[in-house]
Write a structure and sequence with these properties.
Blueprint lengths: L16 H18 L3 H6 L7 H7 L8 E2 L2 E2 L3 H14 L1 H21 L2 H12 L5 E4 L15 E5 L2 E12 L6 E8 L2 E8 L5 E5 L11 E12 L11 H35 L1 E2 L2 E2 L4 H30 L4 H26 L10 H13 L4 H13 L6
Parallel strand pairs: 3-6
Antiparallel strand pairs: 1-2, 4-5, 5-9, 6-7, 8-9, 10-11
């Protein structure tokens, strides 16, 4: 094995020393706290809530936000951290994404000063957990079709409706809930102990098993006037948060792909058939080369996108390229890695199939392949193909 096996194009040379220090610190956390336990957590569908405070102490929660106890890291640094967490498992990485890129980001961007002071420091520390309630049973790719409504009632609001596939909802302390009002779509900061809020875990699942996804029922849930996010009206609010999460996903997918590839490479060098390591066979080498090609290209896509984001010039349509390509290719890499592992690849001793199962969910949320294809199609042609 050579050094080219891990970084063929010397992509590390494109990162600063500070960026690499952060990456290596998160990689060490994943190595010590996640990888020794993830097979059991995945098999038992267990989310290790106890890691939230450790992640908070490491500055990983809302790390791209500034103030209120947040680390104020760059977009590239956030991407590198997300890539390393995903190499551990998507379920644990999803916690960081839902907490920081969705719930905390919504409050940071659009909340009142009172909202920010009340929730962000505790969320950054991992003391409080947040969720982001947008998707509904009948409104996934088309959030404008949501049926959850918030109606004014005296000096407050009453919410009724249902949400589905809401990460962390059963353990969340606060939910950012999006609902239709007479004025348009508004966001609401909802403490989850409010009467009328019910969250139920979605089980069983074939992927994202070390994570929590839930259904939320809102039944005559009463909120004060100041529960509304004051700085946004319409779908621009949730979409801006989704773009934060979509950006992170292009990095994250490459973490899963890299972990599956490295496991397959090590196995191929050790596993012997017909008197030689299977890495000596031409077809095995072709598989390993194809995996490395897509991982290196995917990291380059993510890095270029991150530099644009840090420069303030990134367009939402450009995020779709990375999300669409990197998740799609990461699934292919993980499936290919499984074939190198042979029958052993279906066990939890190896990561490839676990990552592939998780990525099937990642492929769907924060915009399906079809949605991102049409976003790119409209950017190329100037013509919207959405219904």
């Amino acid at each position: 094995m050579t050094d080219l096996a891990y970084d063929y194009l010397d992509l590390d040379g494109m990162f600063s020393a500070e960026e690499l220090e952060l990456r290596d610190r998160v990689r060490g956390f994943v190595r010590d706290r996640i990888k020794p336990n993830i097979a059991d957590w995945y098999e038992n569908a267990y989310f290790p809530r106890e890691l939230a405070r450790e992640m908070g102490a490491s500055g990983l929660l809302g790390m791209h936000l500034t103030g209120y106890g947040c680390a104020g890291r760059s977009a590239v640094e956030y991407g590198l951290a997300a890539m390393e967490l995903e190499a551990g498992d998507s379920g644990l990485r999803t916690f960081v994404s839902v907490q920081g890129s969705l719930a905390m980001s919504a409050i940071h961007k659009f909340g009142s000063e009172e909202h920010k002071q009340r929730w962000l420091p505790d969320m950054a520390a991992g003391e409080s957990i947040g969720c982001f309630a947008l998707t509904e049973p009948d409104a996934g790719s088309d959030p404008a079709g949501m049926t959850t409504r918030a109606q004014r009632d005296g000096d407050g609001w009453v919410l009724n409706g249902a949400k589905r596939w809401i990460g962390l909802a059963t353990i969340a302390d606060v939910a950012v809930v999006w609902a239709k009002t007479d004025e348009g779509v508004r966001g609401f900061v909802v403490p989850t102990d409010t009467p009328g809020f019910t969250a139920t875990a979605i089980e069983p699942k074939l992927g994202m098993r070390a994570s929590i996804q839930a259904e939320i029922a809102l039944s005559d849930l009463r909120l004060p006037e100041d529960a509304v996010l004051p700085e946004v009206l319409g779908l621009r609010g949730p979409f801006s948060c989704l773009n934060e999460a979509r950006y992170g996903i292009m990095w994250e997918a490459m973490g899963a792909a890299r972990d599956a590839y490295e496991d397959a490479l090590a196995y191929a060098l050790e596993r012997r058939q017909f008197g030689v390591p299977i890495a000596a066979f031409q077809l095995t080498q072709q598989k390993l080369v194809d995996m490395m090609l897509e991982i290196q290209k995917g990291v380059l896509v993510a890095l270029r996108t991150g530099r644009l984001k840090d420069a303030g010039t990134l367009r939402p349509q450009q995020i779709s390229l990375g999300k669409l390509n990197n998740v799609r290719e990461a699934i292919a890499v993980c499936r290919q890695a499984r074939t190198v592992l042979g029958g052993n690849g279906i066990t939890l001793e190896h990561s490839a199939l676990r990552h592939a199962n998780n990525l099937e969910s990642v492929r769907t949320y924060e915009g399906t392949d079809e949605v991102h294809t049409l976003i790119m199609g409209q950017a190329l042609t100037g013509i919207s193909a959405f219904a």
